[in-house]
User: Fold these one by one.
Assistant:
Number 1:
Amino acid sequence: MDILLLATLFAMLLVFLFRRYHIPIKHRWRRRQARAMCEQLRGPDRDQPAGLHYARLRAMDPLAFEELLLEAFEQRGHRVIRNRRYTGDGGVDGEVVIDGERWLIQAKRYRDAIRPEHVRDFAMLCATRKRRGMFIHTGRTGGISRTVVLSADGIEIVSGQRLLALLTGAPFHPGGFPPLASVGSGRSGLRDRAPL
């Protein structure tokens, strides 16, 4: 009887570990693509023109772009929390822990201007979860989207030179916000045009 109980517990443990640590093939492929792109952007390709970098980013698989951003944070020594699946993620493409604080990440691989409703939805999600967030994208940030960020608390847009800084290993500093307890008091974190 004890052997049967031990065998059952062992089988349950194996199932738990398999489900917890099994990475689907598509996820592994996207992570490999992201790692390769990250190495290229931090290596000899780092000094290529910004337009070429953006063209390569916009040509990536959108889900591999999400993985690229998470890989870039890992390369900086931050702990990354990945979703178990890409679809049905509730609007959060991953999380990163920076200086002990969890940030929500929303990744958009746009060719044109970002949609203000996407920024608004992400700002509401961050407020609901009481977390700060980074809306990271390859497109243009229009005036309405900037207004949404200015009226929201605890989110910032990362694009342009800041996006390239994140990906190439150049200085990148998110935040500059008040303590989380004061998120909601009207201060914004818009930093879209910081120098590289």
Number 2:
Amino acid sequence: MLIKYKWIMLLLMTMIAFAAVSLLQGAGRSAGRADLSDPFLDPYALSLAHRHAGHGMESASEKAVQLQIEWTGGPPQAGVHSDLSLTITNGQGELLKDFVITNEKLMHLIVVSEDLQYFQHIHPEYTGQGHFKVNVSFPTGGTYKLYADFLPTGMNELTRSVSVQVQGKLNQPVPLEESDSLTAHVHGMKVQLEFADKPAPGSATSMTYTFTDGKTGEPVEDLELYLGAVGHVVAIDEALQQFIHVHPLNWASSGPQAVFGVSFPVSGTYKLWGQFRRGGVDMIIPFIVTV
């Protein structure tokens, strides 16, 4: 009886996976030739397994993990390269020493200015015994927020953030306003972002970036892997409280589409940075959306 039950459950899970793939094949298509029957399509990503769970869904041991930073050469200054040390500890203040590589790196560090006009994605070097180091440069003075993504062995992927004050001349903050169009022209390409459903708080949907030649309109099919995938998307809300980092469902695709499963936790205005690579050139494509 137990064996029969296991086979029934396996059959149901397989049917759900195929249903997810079928749903995605009809979602988020644009004028560009879309082919989501990619053999590398990851239907499990639609359940947001590739989105960090958030502090509220972490286990007690995960919640206890802390990030500590130190500017080893003194407080950071605008226009000057500053040495940053990052240390990961557990609830007992002990160093966490073992980490798992995610998307080719042990740690991903996202640096944004308070008004979200500045964005940087860098990768601290692990020096052992729970310590990372990296060189950071800030364009202007003011408040910045750092988000560190890492995966301690035996845990889920975690995000920890910290605000820093940078000395130097301040820029006038730029208000965050929704993009008039979700179309960009980058490196000779036309890039369109489409959502399968209108973004709503707590509702899972898919978003699709479609790449076509800016002159001919032909599909772009020579995108290169960036950090082990066709692309990555980071989204941060205007209050700098919500951080989302999602990976593509069709991770090994070379275009013309990159498809992501996403859920915005609360309403508000979010800035999205899509990161892609073509011809050895890394591209950052920003859009601002209202949820």
Number 3:
Amino acid sequence: MIEIPSDLNPGLVPLVFLLGTWEGAGVADFPGAEKCNFGQEVTFSHDGRDFVEYTSRTWVLDTDGQKVRPLESESGYWRIDSSRKVEVVMVRDQGVVEVWYGELADQKPQIDLATDAVARTAASGPYSGGKRLYGYVKGDLMWVGEKSTPEVPMRPYMSAHLKKVVSPEQVEQWAKDLGDLPDDGIAFFK
């Protein structure tokens, strides 16, 4: 269920499907890097201003699905304009800063992004650009990322399937809301 927070900046309503904390798993595979399964936690939040704050943490998973070690983390800010154009500024722990531009699809919660600018520190690995696709599918958040380096043309490198995390406070509120249902529970469905 998608809810629009009362304190959400009205311009961000098209991005409301992203809001919340999401957890799940995915696959990473890129030439020159370890192929692995990874776990991920992503949070999209807001404070009433005209942007959505974004944080992501990933970690390598072993064959039993247990955390082995951190993989990568990133954070940034997402904005959208009245013509559904999306811009993202992102910083990665590998020493990369990116500016992404894209668009929210018409009539569906899907965002296509591509890098417009990339800045790297001397310690970062080779990287020249990326593309990402985020989609809200049957209540889940799914994404796929592509990247390129001077040696490797643009190709998929990570993807994940994430489920929304429900806080104990949300469950408690839902339980309170159930008090309005008829005693037998069946009348609700008639």
Number 4:
Amino acid sequence: MFTPLIRVILIIACFVMAILFYLREDYINTGLTILAAGLFGYGYFRYGTVYAAFQQLKKENTNKAEKLISKVRNPNNLSKQQKSYYHFTTGIIASEKNEFDVAKSELTKALEIGLRTKNDTSIVLLNLANIEYERKELSSAKEYLNKLKDYELKPLVKSEMDKLTEKINVAQHDI
């Protein structure tokens, strides 16, 4: 949730406080502030800026989401859940840029790892169907839409699915 800069500032502040507590011979608070610094460092490597980027993506602020997700240096060090949302966010950003091969790869990885909510999974499936439609792979797009029917969809996802289904039907009829 914190950006790397804020985490570094918090870690430095914790170490400064630890030194002050040590000079006062307050060893309990010294240990606690060093522990807090360690937790901020752990959070940096384990969670990165994925949550903040995902929140920006929800607000449709793709540029800020891209900047935040690019700060994750090594996604393999992320926790399983954060890794899936890293791929989710990266895939959606690539889709927005019309980089469909990258988007499909990233969104597929997010599905394989597993997302926290069924709504997020349905959004990924809808985006994969849309990518396949854009790539003119209509049968594959229909497969993703069929998988999507197994989920209880929110109204927005349902309306987008209906629109895409109609587009696919029109495209198949034209062929």
